[in-house]
UniProtKB/TrEMBL annotation:
Localization per Swiss-Prot or TrEMBL: Cell membrane
Keyword list, A-Z: Cell membrane, Membrane, Transmembrane, Transmembrane helix, Transport
CDD domains, sorted: TM_PBP2
Protein name: Sugar ABC transporter permease
Topology versus the membrane: Multi-pass membrane protein
Pfam families: BPD_transp_1
InterPro entries, per the entry: ABC_transporter_permease, MetI-like, MetI-like_sf
Keyword Transport: yes
Residue ranges annotated for the ABC transmembrane type-1 domain, each copy included: 72-284
Family to which this protein belongs: Belongs to the binding-protein-dependent transport system permease family.
The species this protein was found in: Kribbella yunnanensis
Entry superkingdom: Bacteria
Record field: transmembrane: 12-36, 76-98, 110-128, 159-180, 263-285
Length: 296
């Protein structure tokens, strides 16, 4: 065997070794914590004493607890809200400003909120939605009804108002993604459609919308995953209250683990939330890919 061939075979055998550090980091930071969380979810554990095997007790308690069922309902409400409001508003902003002379400047007010954190969004909108906050004072100044409404004092209205707050933050980045999708559409079919008399909604429905399908899949997929793990805005604005009326699964997981020191119950909620997120992502992508094959 020539020296060149021997060197190639030696390099091919050694190549996997270069991936070992990355694989070790992934195993240390992802797989091992997941396995530990899975084990803890089947135990009674307060974070101090050794875990005691409890079988399915944590899962039975989770599915029989009305507060956790309410948290699941609120989480689903977040999914529906985030898949509709920020996505539709982002698409509307992108379509209306695309090709406009001042399009970049018109999109800027929608993009700026995305630069701040979820905690900051919660603080700002908490100030706006308090009974004596900015919204109530503005309504009272103009003599409009709702000046003394407790927007965050009862469910599910408090959850809906928080979805509006996150929509204010998320619509801008969705608009930016849709603009990228619009820029990838060839100009010739659009010009041909315009020559055939298509304009306005007809042009959008028959030309723009079908070709925005790939970027729409990305935007909706990110919205689903983000809504399932909603935590920071809810914690800052209501801490899941009043009572547990606005809790999400992520917030319930945090409270069970770090407030009540029930690590086994918190791990069970965490594992359930991870499985729901994974299943929702897979089902959505399979649906989108299957629909795309049928259209092709």
């Amino acid at each position: 065997m020539s020296r060149k061939g021997l060197s190639s075979r030696t390099g091919a055998r050694a190549a996997p070794l270069f991936g070992l550090p990355a694989a070790g980091v992934v195993a240390l930071l992802l797989y091992l914590p997941f396995l530990w969380t899975t084990y803890v979810s089947f135990t009674s554990y307060d974070g101090l004493a050794l875990p005691v095997w409890a079988g399915l007790a944590n899962y039975q308690a989770m599915f029989s607890d009305p507060d956790l069922i309410g948290a699941l309902v609120n989480t689903l409400l977040w999914v529906v809200g985030m898949v509709t409001l920020p996505v539709v508003l982002g698409l509307l902003v992108a379509v209306l400003t695309y090709g406009h002379r001042w399009g970049s400047w018109l999109r800027l007010p929608f993009l700026l909120p995305y630069a701040i954190s979820g905690v900051a969004v919660g603080v700002i909108w908490g100030f706006v939605l308090q009974p004596d906050g900015a919204l109530g004072q503005a309504l009272g100044f103009f003599g409009l009804p709702g000046a003394h409404t407790g927007w965050l004092q009862s469910g599910p209205g408090n959850t809906l108002m928080m979805i509006v707050a996150v929509t204010w933050q998320a619509a801008g980045v969705n608009a930016l993604l849709f603009v990228v999708g619009l820029q990838s559409i060839p100009g010739e079919p659009l010009e041909a459609a315009r020559l055939d008399g298509a304009d306005g909604f007809r042009l959008f429905r028959h030309q723009l919308w079908p070709q925005l399908r790939p970027i729409t899949t990305v935007v909706v997929g990110l919205s689903i995953v983000g809504s399932l793990k909603t935590f920071d805005v809810v914690w800052v604005m209501t801490q899941g209250g009043p009572g547990t009326s606005s809790e999400t699964l992520a917030l319930s997981m945090y409270k069970e683990t770090f407030v009540l020191n029930d690590y086994g119950q918190g791990a069970a909620i965490a594992l359930f939330l991870s499985l729901v997120t994974f299943a929702a992502s897979i089902l959505y992508l399979r649906y989108q890919l299957g629909d795309a094959r049928e259209q092709a």
